[in-house]
Amino acid sequence: MASRLQQYTKTEDMAARHSMLGNRWLATIAHGVLLTVIAGLFLVGSSAASVAQGGADQAPAKVLKPAANDRIVARLIAQLMPKNHISAKGLDDTISQRALALFTKSLDPLKLYFYQSDIDEFNRNASQIDDMVQKGDLSLAYKIFGRFIQRVDERVAVAQELLDGDFDFSKDETIVVDPEAAKYAKTPADAKDRWRRQIKYALLDLKDEGKVGDEAVDTLRRRYGRYARRWKQTDSDDLLEMFLTSVTNGYDPHSTYMSPSTLEDFQIQMSLNLDGIGAQLREKDGNTVVSRVIPGGAAAKHGKLKSDDVIVTVGQGKSGESVDIVEMPLSDVVDLIRGKAGTTVRLGVKPGGVGNVEEYQIVRATIALEESAARGEIIEHKNPDGGKDLKIGYINLPSFYLDMDAARRDERDYRSSTRDVRRIINDFKAKGVDGIVLDLSKNGGGSLTEAINLTGLFIDSGPVVQVKNSDGSVQAYSDENSGTAWNGPLGVLTSKFSASASEIFAGAIQDYKRGIVIGDPATHGKGTVQTLMNLGQRLFGNNRQNYGALKVTLQQFYLPDGESTQLKGVLSDIILPSLTSKMDVGEGDLKYALEHDTVPVARHNLYSMVPNNLLDQLRKKSAARVEQDEEFTDLLRRVELYVTQKDQEAVSLEEEAFLARRKELDSQKEEEEELEQQIEDAVIFRDNYYNTEVMNIMADYIDGLRKENLAVAN
């Protein structure tokens, strides 16, 4: 819940929308996987606006108290972090100060709610959080959260009052949109003026969408009311996860506490199967809307549920009471709809969001998340230079996944990315492909073991990654299985979103000179290893009780040549222009990221698949094509505009200036929407100008290797 509520208001601004899109990737990267799933359904990351919208009425906040287990969990986290974190750093005053800043920011990122006096008051306890957590004392977290709820109610009341008045859109004034440049209000008058500007911004944004007058005002009334209610529905698990993650994030951005529900989600993500109806859902204006029905899932087999349908009630079994889910948080809706395979769920649905409610009885089923697994497609590529047409195998790999429980049980057909990619390669080889592209551009990581095993499909044997422990010792982890699945031309497509295990794979392929890396100037830069410590297991020696888990950074990894991917990432051999390269989503954009360093080289073989002279030729030919391509030229213009707008601290609230700026931003929506669609849809290979150039580079690469007799036939 917290992660969704943290992103709530700056969504009207295009740069902020890109930032939010990046935040969603960062959240998945932090968990080491790239799939956001709640058992039985897929949660489409709702925009801040949809999270923030709400009715005008103000529900009273429930009395929130720590559960008995919360104190036990806090004390255990305080013990485990210093013992296991790679820094070997104690839980001290520095971590305490960082934790306080991170916690207040998670509640109020744009500094719209707290007063400066609130922050000053909290800061008097800035050096005490370490001591409090060690004692299991969570009183400060509850005090800060209680004050936040109080301020939210006050600000929403002010907003509702302001919405009764008039606004002068001809006045030359601005609003600060950069959270770092924003300041907390010092007085009620300051807060009211800030909210007056905030509402003007929102009304101008709604006008750009075609909503004016009473319709726009009513939209904002519901939005602010819903935002307040959402926060009041926070439970002790939500708050504990927010607070303890602020503490663990004080060590580094990837050490987190997972609440019991988050742990369940993580386990689903890694196993790629779950029980439910098989649908993507999103929240819009307080309604649960179907974004997409997953092919092969229970809803698809039922046949009636469609995209844009609105679900208004949920019932269990074939009869009994149905629960009204309008205005209900999406995570709670998911809890009602998901369930064991073979059981029935009843959905009250408005087809297309209009008309009468129809009831659909859907029998839940086990869903294999094929669209989150490796998928392949053969591209028939026409050579732009008039040469021979080529068959290029394209593999889309969203994460390095492994059904860990099934693997531990030594089940014969347990699911893994390596097994799936090997199967695809075998199919490619049978159909005579000339080269293979492995797309990791949307891959946020996953299993370290899988990164090593999958690298082994392309190298004979040898070290893939080196790992440094908190005591400074370094150990190399190798592919020990001789032989390869593919010896021919290999391209690895990356972006700034490629992280963790993706960087291990791409970096190893590069160090071995086994293939070429194409994409953004550098990958994400996450060079650390996390382990998941099940707290129930730690406390009782079994997993019968779910106390959540600690994900802690206990190692840092390095490539065979000794370079860490931390902060620097893996540099592309051939760079293509993109919007993602300019987004603030790299490791270096995260608070308290660990530093880059090196270790000695691990001896390994070198392949002859990337001759320097050929690499130079590939770069020159690609650069010439990009320069002549109208769509790349337009992209470069939009990237330049994006960077200019992204770096602005304030935006004009004068109507003509605002709408002129918005018109410029709207010209970039196609690129933004395409990027978001790529994250969420099931397309294996998107036939656009960018991927066409990737294929052109691969065609040149294959041709160049053949001319030098280096392309190995499989």
Our Rg estimate from Cα atoms comes to 26 Å
The low-pLDDT segments are 1-58
Instruction: State the distance separating the first and last CA atoms.
Output: 50 Å
What is the tally of helical segments?
Answer: 24
In total, the number of domains comes to 3
CATH superfamily of the largest domain: 2-enoyl-CoA Hydratase, Chain A, domain 1
The CATH topology of the largest domain turns out to be 2-enoyl-CoA Hydratase, Chain A, domain 1
Q: Tell me the helix content.
A: 40-55%
Mean pLDDT: 85
Q: SS-based structural class?
A: alpha+beta
Give the name of the CATH architecture of the largest domain. Answer: Alpha-Beta Complex
Shape by Cα distribution: globular
User: Could you tell me the strand content as a percent range?
Assistant: 15-25%
CATH class (first level) name of the largest domain? Alpha Beta
Please count the beta strands (DSSP E, at least 2 residues each): 23
Largest sheet: 8 strands, mixed
